[in-house]
Amino acid sequence: xxxxxxxxxxxxxxxxxxxxxxxxxxxxxxxxxxxxxxxxxxxxxxxxxxxxxxxxxxxxxxxxxxxxxxxxxxxxxxxxxxxxxxxxxxxxxxxxxxxxxxxxxxxxxxxxxxxxxxxxxxxxxxxxxxxxxxxxxxxxxxxxxxxxxxxxxxxxxxxxxxxxxxxxxxxxxxxxxxxxxxxxxxxxxxxxxxxxxxxxxxxxxxxxxxxxxxxxxxxxxxxxxxxxxxxxxxxxxxxxxxxxx
Length: 245
Prior knowledge:
Pfam families: CCG (PF02754). There is one protein chain. The chain is of the alpha/beta class. The protein has two domains: 2-113, no CATH class; 126-241, Rossmann fold (3-Layer(aba) Sandwich), CATH 3.40.50. It is 47% helix and 12% strand. The strands form two sheets. Strands 2-1-3-4 form a four-stranded parallel sheet, with helices on both faces. A four-stranded parallel sheet has the order 6-5-7-8. Strand 7, helix 12 and strand 8 (233-236) form a beta-alpha-beta unit. Helix 11 packs across helix 12. The two termini are 29 Å apart.
């Protein structure tokens, strides 16, 4: 199984340990992982701001770097969804289509493709799970309260395999954290208020960490936690699944 590792901008620039944890986890589970060195942004920031047409260079480069792999895996639901819905290359439409069908967010790859039933990981802390909007409503990584369907959560399914973890969920389990890409820049006050509401529900549960599958959302929450002087920390789910504390 040839797996290409796609590491989004936020992780590459600010949270490289998330990328390292993802690589190590995939290799532990038997994947032959390649990291294309010339990869760059997928183009999501431009699309979020209404300028998807300006991301053509990102598309061409993405197709150049990720063509020919059985699977492409990324520890970011929002970037994966963007590629699935927007990747386009006029000169290589077949390759672009193949990539759109081959790209997976980390937790869905572990549950749906590798069908992981056990993970050798230990994390003896109380952890609150945050569901990011793109992963939940776009990639269907977990059920939504507005739909009358059986409850499920691929991230929660994996976290329950971790030894010592005490998992909790906020009262409003699928509420947005307020990040929303460029939304947090153009609507700063609303974004921060939404983030504070998310954090307050997790703090009621007295969690040590807040985890999730999107580093961008965790970064937004982390900033608020630090400004509030909170002892609660954020951690990407890849780091927990790869942890042997």
